[in-house]
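Hey team,

Filing this mostly as a record. A colleague (T.K.) asked me to run one chain through the structure pipeline before their review meeting, and I want the input and output archived in the tracker in case anyone asks later how it was produced. No errors, nothing strange. Just documentation.

Input sequence:
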Amino acid sequence: EAQLVESGGGLVQAGGSLRLSCAASGFTFDDVVIGWFRQVPGKEREGVSCISSSDGTTYYDDSVKGRFTISSDNAKNTVYLQMNSLKPEDTAVYYCAADEGTGWGIDPEEYEYWGQGTQVTVSS
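Output structure:
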């Protein structure tokens, strides 16, 4: 059974940093796209970043480019999202997801497996 477990969320002041982790199991990790998404109440889930586990190619939404860094440790089946220079508007529940297909990008519809989410709150 495919499973994704996020961790690392919390409360941080504006300008601070957090590192989210996404531990994957139950599927072949070496050839998937892992994405990070976020959602606030009343809004649609939006894509933040993604990485190809096979070649390390990354993609970032413009809203986080230059502040967030996605990385993958294939030996640990884990993807990280390093978030620096956090802003109050980054406050959301953050989810990681896996896409075993041939797609690429941060469209939530392309992803088959989802974690339960971790709350990130940035205070001003």
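Quick notes for T.K.: The chain has a mean pLDDT of 96. The two ends are 40 Å apart (CA to CA).
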